[in-house]
Amino acid sequence: MELTVLGSSGSFGAPAAGGACSGYLVRAGDTSVWLDCGNGTFSVLQEHLLVADLSAVVISHAHPDHCVDLYGLHVLCRYGMQRAGLPVFAPPGLRDRLGALVDGWEDTFDWYDVEDGDAATVDPLGLRFSRTDHPPPTMAVEVTGDEKRLVYTADTGPGWSVEAFESGADLVVSEASFLHADRRASLHLSAHEAGAGARAARARRLMITHLWPTLDPMDSVEEASEAFGDPVTLAAPHMVTQV
Predict the structure, then answer these.
(1) For each of the chain's 243 residues, which pLDDT tens digit applies?
(2) Which residues contact 75 (CB under 8 A, 6 or more apart)?
(3) What is the CATH number of the domain that holds 120?
(4) Alpha carbon of 45 to those of 17, 163, 184: distances in Å?
């Protein structure tokens, strides 16, 4: 299983080049799943994948920095490729909420509502979902395939933990919006909490993402690494890693 980071900026696009918001491409064999469609990620996706080869989309929640580039995909599929029925897994209500702005939404995408504890398959990848501590309803995602396991926390406050999934994930991709001494909102994790949570879940590796754009990312890496007990990776657009 291979993970490509399409964007990693938290809440709004960073001012530097490559400052797209949350988005990841998970691939195993001929299967490719776009995991969160934050603003700026669709252009990066097209540098790594022919859109005709996209197998499915997973959206963790309704905040624009995680879903808004689905509109670009809709336009290309509907008017450029005449493609219909692309599977989209998302929390209930998101289909109608986003689709109110466009025509042909339900023709382009085949929507599957997912809630806490649900599972799905995009062969050969397995998906499991867990409701996090973040409004609106937000789903963390566990992806399994090639005898590897990836956990993506999506957005969450400290009331949810990676331990909601089986321990020992090969890679945890965790939001780490703030530094612990300056946690500006309880609906996101600090870098310390990201590291401590992954350590408690006995993750083999940790990648932090969704950093507040004005932070010095090296401070976040240092804080998360200390809490995790091993060096962590900082997500950045175009980064490719084997899970």
Answers:
(1) 999 999 999 999 998 767 999 999 999 999 999 999 999 999 999 999 999 999 999 999 999 999 999 999 999 999 999 999 999 999 999 999 999 999 989 999 999 999 999 999 999 999 999 999 999 999 999 999 999 999 999 999 999 999 999 999 999 999 999 999 998 889 999 999 999 999 999 999 999 999 999 999 999 999 999 999 999 999 999 999 999
(2) none
(3) 3.60.15.10
(4) 15, 30, 31
What would the two tokens of residue 10 be? 């938290």
The arrangement of strands across the sheet holding 240-242 comes to 109-113, 86-90, 56-58, 31-37, 23-28, 2-7, 240-242
Helix locations, the chain, DSSP H: 41-48, 64-67, 70-75, 94-99, 105-108, 191-200, 217-228
Range of the domain at 157: 2-242
The number of CA neighbours under 13 Å toward the Cβ of 91 is 21
Q: Quickly count: other Cβ atoms within 10 Å of residue 49's Cβ.
A: 17
Number of domains within the chain: 1
